[in-house]
Structures are given as C-alpha cells and as structure tokens.
Amino acid sequence: MKEHLINSMSKYVKLDAEEEKLLKSFWTEKTLEKGDYLLRNGETCRTDNYVVKGVLKAYYINAESGKEELLYFAIEDWWATDIESFQKQKPSIYNIQAIEKTELLQIRYDSFQEMLKQIPKLERFFRIILENYLGSLQRRIIFNNVFDAEQRYCQFMENYPKIAEKVPQYLLASYLGISAEFLSRIRKRHKAS
C-alpha cells in the first residue's frame, strides 16, 4: 500500500531509495469497513489520511435541521483529514465516514512533523496538495453561489467523474444541494441529449 503513496508523491517530488525507506517508516495501514468512522465530530483529528482504495465522505450535521451537509468525498489517491483539527490538534466539527470498505495510510501528527524535518522536500508536496484542495474549495463556493443545480451537476461530472461513479446518487444530490429526484431528472436529460 505504501507504494501507492510514493507513486503519488513522485508526481511532484523525487525521493531517493533512502528517503522512500524513511518515508515508509512513518506511515501505518488502516482498513475501515463500510459505515466505520475515521473521525467523529468532537474528536481531535490525530492522523493525516491518504486513501489507497475505497470512498469516504466528510460531513457536518446541521444542528437546527439535523441534516447532513456534505463537505467532500475522498477516493483513491485523495486525502481525508480535518486539516484544522489535525494542524491545531483541536476537536473537529465534522465527521469522516467510509461509504465502502476503505484502505488508508495514516500518519500521526507528531510523526508528520518529524517526517517533514527528516525529508524537507516533502514540504513542497504537501504545499501543492493544500493548494489543490484550496482551489477546489474556492471553485465549490463559486459554483454553489452562482450556478444553478444543472450547472453544478455538469461541473461536478466534468471535474470528478470517478467520484460520480462510486458515490450513491442520494449522496451526490446532497453534495450538490438538490433532491435525489431532481438529480435523477437532470441525469435523464443529459443521457437523452
């Protein structure tokens, strides 16, 4: 499983054999069954998590409505972490849960800091990952505030087709802020055209 992470990192930074061996020593493997929680609201996020296989959803429970507000999905070669909780080691306000059996690589906060000290070039990799994540959050804010439901669906399908294949329709609808029935109508229109 650790080779997946090294392959992902190699797109941005080149590690020599010694650095690869050292990197592997910091990460542990974890498997979640469908429905298992990686993180619950109120817990401190103790690990940064790289998805090797499977699907996770991150969500917040709206205190007034009791409704799940989906923040993101994480599939293979993605990260699933509450960044603020992990970096500040304070309680999280959201949950991360497996939608299907999921295999992860995890690194604890103190090990993460030590890894960056021992392999400084990884700072570049994690900066790029955070920049990509920030860009996707900004896009999502714009899409939610400017685009109608059909445009949001089209943008999502264009940007994240692999997620759309793996995530149940009712979760995709929730993420897009529409009903499952309305999403079904949009999908039928697009299949017909």
Could you give the order of the helices and strands? HHEEEEEHEEHHHHHH
Instruction: Tell me the CATH architecture of the domain at 2-118.
Output: Sandwich
Could you report the average pLDDT, rounded to the nearest whole number?
93
Rg, Cα atoms, Å: 18 Å
As a percent range, the share of strand residues is 15-25%
Shape: globular
> Low-confidence spans: pLDDT under 50, at least 5 residues?
none
Name the CATH superfamily classification of the domain at 2-118: Jelly Rolls
Number of helices: 9
Question: Largest sheet, if any?
Answer: 4 strands, antiparallel
Helix content: 40-55%
What gap, in angstroms, lies between the N and C termini? 41 Å
**CATH class group of the domain at 2-118:** Mainly Beta
Strand order of the largest sheet: 2-6-4-5
Q: Look at the helices and sheets and give the structural class.
A: alpha+beta
Could you give the count of β-strands? 7
Q: What is the CATH topology of the domain at 2-118?
A: Jelly Rolls
Describe the 3D structure.
The protein has 193 residues and is an alpha+beta fold. The protein has a domain at 2-118: Jelly Rolls. 50% of the residues lie in helices and 20% in strands. It has a 4-stranded antiparallel sheet. The protein starts with a helix and ends with a helix. The model has no long low-confidence stretch (mean pLDDT 93).
Write the layout of secondary structure elements.
Elements lengths: L1 H8 L7 H10 L1 E5 L4 E3 L7 E7 L2 E6 L6 E7 L8 H6 L6 E4 L3 E7 H10 L3 H25 L2 H11 L1 H6 L2 H8 L3 H13 L1
Helix pairs in contact: 8-9
